Amino acid sequence: MSDITQLTLKKTVDGIKNKDFSEKELNEAFFKKIESQNSKLNIFLSQKINTTGIPVAIKDIIITKDIPTTAGSKILENFIPPYNATVIEKLIENGVSVIGKTNCDEFAMGSSGENSAYGPTLNPWDITKVPGGSSSGSAAAVAADLCVFSLGTDTGGSIRQPASLSGVVGLKPSYGRVSRYGSIAMASSLDQIGPFTKCVEDARLVLEWISGGDKYDSNCKNEKFLSSKKLTNLKNIKIGVPKEYFGKGLDEGVKKVINSALKKMEDLGAEIVEVSLPNTKYAVAVYYIIMSSEVSSNLARFDGIRYGKDRDKFGAEVKRRIMLGTFSLASGYYDAYFTKAAKVRNLIKQDFDRVFQKINVIVGPVSPTVAWNLGDKVNDPLKMYLSDAYTIPASLAGIPGLSVPCGFSEGLPVGLQILGKQFDEDIVLAVGEVYESYTSWKEEKPKI
Amino acid sequence: MNQDKYEPVIGLEVHVELNTKTKMFCYCSADYFAKQTNSQVCPVCLGLPGALPMINREAIKKCIQIGLALNCSINETSYFERKNYFYPDLAKGFQTSQLVLPICVKGWLDVEDDSLTGLGMTRIRINRVHQEEDTGKLTHVGDETLIDFNRSSVPLVEIVTEPDFKSSAQVRDYAKKLQQIFKYLGVSSADMEKGQMRLEANVSVRLVGQKELPPYRVELKNINSFRFMVAAVEYEIKRQIEALEKGEKLSQETRGWNEAKNETYLQRSKEEAHDYRYFPEPDLPEISFSDNLVNQIKSEMPELPALKLERYKNEFKLKLSDAKILIDDLFLANFFEEALIYGREKGVEAQQIANYIINQKIDLVDSNPSQIVDDILAKKSSTLDDDLELEKLAKEAIEKNPNMVESYKSGKISVIMALVGIVMRISSGRANAQKVKEILVKLLNN
User: Fold this and answer.
1) What is the value of ipTM here, to two decimals?
2) Closest chain A residue to the Cα of B278, Cα to Cα
3) Which end of chain A is more exposed for a tag (fewer CB within 10 A), N or C?
4) The dihedral sign for the CA sequence B203, B207, B213, B215
């Protein structure tokens, strides 16, 4: 065996069990790799040296006891939390240890990682490109083999989109599947913690570890995720392809890659049908009202009194969303904005409910384009917002979504999005795993 | 100034802290009184990044009990909302409260006004009873302000009336009755000095006969006793009538009470009014209450003061004033009712027991109800009827109270009852009161 940092989580667990290598050797190998790569990619905001445990990288918006947690913001520059997020406690119970906190857009607001107050993370496939966001560091860390797996958060696509742009597996579980306790809130009705992994099987394992009820999150479902479905092919699987995800704005190269993935799935026995999610066109607008409203309230606690920094230390995008949300909730505007958006959100949910009566999963692109050049969209917020047009609807509906590597366009990775009914991660993961096992995209590694 | 031209329009908001074991949205102890500062805290009530609220079901139950005691309907479903504003004692930058769907709505409470205006019983409509959380506590020391978060997220119930009060006496009676209800329900000690019960009054005045509400209201806030609240309301009514008479225009503002000067003072004017940007709390699920649950809670509620008063009057035939004294304190009422059971066996009347308990000012902690009945029987058997003995006592009372004698002689003959009372006390209640009165009259008229 050449490089133990390239192993999947499953193989790492087996390797330790079989005494192929020790936990100490494993941690040393990652430490060395981080030492040589991190300054190039700007992935880790803080690091911890361990001698035991399976190394995991954690998005810096998830609270870790005694390890600085900044949320990518200057306002929390010196914040060392006195407690652990529930997911961290659950990982520790499963023999996992945090080796570092990863860079992200400030308070998870962004799609490229460029809104981090600590400089952007670079895409391991091409350091002139963004890795996607907001969980930029967590996606890049897995792509560059700087951890066995990582955790990110997804509010409107912040796991799936960077997974797609960085060529790794990323899972946004259903809203209510994983406790949010200890995830610094961006938009409470949308936020969800999920894993970045080197293969679908690993995502399944991590979800088993981190899911389940929590007496600290009242919106979290009690039942732990237990996978039961393992498919060997896609016979009897009905895949819906939403025509709204293939319209104007979808890059031709990406479209080609997605279409050939769909062809592959058909070859594996799936029945492909076109479906319509007619309210998709309102999703971005609805999202920016609801998300920003919740943001304006959630970020009020950083009032300049207790965390050592004034509110003028918020970055431009954070300020923009606080103002947008404050406006949407203001008396006299509330009904026209917040209430209206909440109603349309329901319609978007109903779109999915209707479609899922006839199909098992929805498949389409995660992102309309591959990774773009650093700086390309920073001065055009609207253009940046539209890059999440295919991930936002699932977030609004609270349903699970998986991004699986499915090829390359212009030499950059493309992710395939698989969506399922709420709490039906099982089928999403099973379909993703069959596709993955009949393709070899996961063997491709960035040359860094 | 023509006072009769105007009538006050007053509404009340009462906050009461619940005595639950744990806080409203976390697992910290809610008993913060006299505790080491910032010792009853956790990430949730400190509003640390990443922390989430959990609903305290016990608090909700107590909120429903208060609502039921105030004749409210319980909404089938209810939810929490965020009330957004900045203040150093507000850890999250918002208070978790209720606006659109409070737990209890549309209740009432009858209040009375013993004052000369003779308004009698008035039904005060209750708009809502909702659940929220308390804030931290600020202490100003020199130029510094310290924050204690022990109180942060302690369950708080807010009770809002319609603007139905017409006098400060009604306000006082309402507040007293509420306090009594909280104590009967055992949901709060409702100690105003400790801040467990807080009153805010909205006061305005209008011309008698005018139907619509005045175009302004003055909010009286941060007043920590019944007495001061009554004084502040009275002061405001007077101040506002004077202002209107002078042709001044009154405006929406918040005023406090200056104890030293006995007057209200401006705290905040309308220009600084907040837009709280309420919206549904996304971190908490909707709560719903089945009829079964509400009936269950209802069945666990104790007898409330108003019903007890009726029962004491009708069933035990007590004098209204005595019944009121007994029900004022649940401990006293329970003591009385226990004594009653024993008294029934021994043939002692309810009124006799009531008299004894009230007149002798017995120490409830050191006495027991059956002993009281025995004492009454013992006294009865040794009633003082001897004229000479009684005259001796009456003389003693007269000698020791020259003031009373003087007022009697100047025509205030009702003072005789006070002298009878004194003789009763000197005789440890054994004197025949009727005879004492006769003897006193005889002595004083000589």
Assistant:
1) 0.95
2) A329
3) N
4) negative
Q: Is B80 on the interface with A (CB under 8 A)?
A: no
Chain B residues with CB under 8 Å of A305 CB are 88
B177: amino acid identity, one letter: K
Tell me how far apart the alpha carbons of residues B41 and B32 are, in angstroms, rounded to a whole number.
Answer: 10
B54 reaches A (C-beta below 8 A): yes
The SS3 call for residue B176 is helix
Structure tokens, B335: 């003591």
For chain A, list residues whose CB is within 8 angstroms of any CB belonging to chain B.
Answer: 62-63, 69, 71, 76, 79, 81-83, 85, 180-185, 187-189, 215-219, 293-294, 296-297, 299-303, 305, 326, 329-331, 334, 338
B283 → closest Cβ in A218, A300, A302: A218
pTM of the model: 0.90
* Residues of A noted as catalytic: 59, 134, 158
Provide the residue type at B104 as one letter: C
Would you say residue A210 lies in a domain? yes
CA-nearest of B370, B339, B375 to B354 is B339
- Of B279, B282, B284, nearest to A329 by CB-CB distance is B279
Instruction: Give how far B96 is from chain A: nearest CA, Å.
Output: 11
Domains of chain B: 3-294 (no CATH), 303-381 (no CATH), 387-445 (1.10.10.410)
Beta bridge partners of B148: B137
In total, how many domains does chain A have?
Answer: 1
Distance between CA atoms of residues A261 and A329, nearest Å: 43
| CB contact (8 A) between residue B283 and residue A334 | no
**Nearest residue to A30 (alpha-carbon basis) of A9, A64, A4:** A4
The C-alpha atoms of residue A106 and residue B49 are separated, in whole angstroms, by: 14
Q: Which residues of A208-242 are buried (b: 16+ CB within 10 A; e: fewer)?
A: ebbbbebebbbbbbeeebeeeeebeebeebebbbb
Q: Tell me which residue of A396, A85, A423, A83 sits closest to A222, measured CA to CA.
A: A423
Residue A245 in 3-state DSSP? helix
**What is the nearest CA distance from A373 to chain B, expressed in angstroms?**
32
Considering only CB atoms, which chain A residues are within 8 Å of B82? 297
Per-residue pLDDT of chain B (446 residues; tens, 9 = 90+): 456 899 999 999 999 999 999 999 999 999 999 999 999 999 999 999 999 999 999 999 999 999 999 999 999 999 999 999 999 999 999 999 999 999 999 999 999 876 645 556 899 999 999 999 999 999 999 999 999 999 999 999 999 999 999 999 999 999 999 999 999 999 999 999 999 999 999 999 999 989 999 999 999 998 889 999 999 999 999 999 999 999 999 999 999 999 999 999 998 887 666 899 999 999 999 999 999 999 999 999 999 999 999 999 998 899 888 899 999 888 889 989 988 888 888 778 888 888 888 877 777 777 788 887 887 777 766 777 788 888 888 999 899 988 888 888 888 888 888 898 888 888 777 788 888 988 998 888 87
Spatial CA neighbour of A84 closest among A179, A212, A213: A179
> To which residue do tokens 């998300």 refer?
A291
Torsions phi, psi for B145 (to 5 deg): -120, 130
| A175 located within any domain | yes
Q: How far is A297 from chain B (nearest CA, A)?
A: 7
Q: Which residues of A touch B50 (CB under 8 A)?
A: 62-63, 81, 85, 181-185
Domain assignment present for A448: no
| Parent domain of A266 | 4-443
Chain A residues close to B93, C-beta within 8 Å: 297, 299-303
Specify the CATH number for the domain of residue A357: 3.90.1300.10
- Judge whether A309 lies within some domain: yes
The maximal CA–CA distance of chain B, rounded, in angstroms, is 87
* The two three-digit tokens of residue B383, written as one number: 């009633």
Query: B83 CB near a chain A CB, below 8 Å?
Result: no
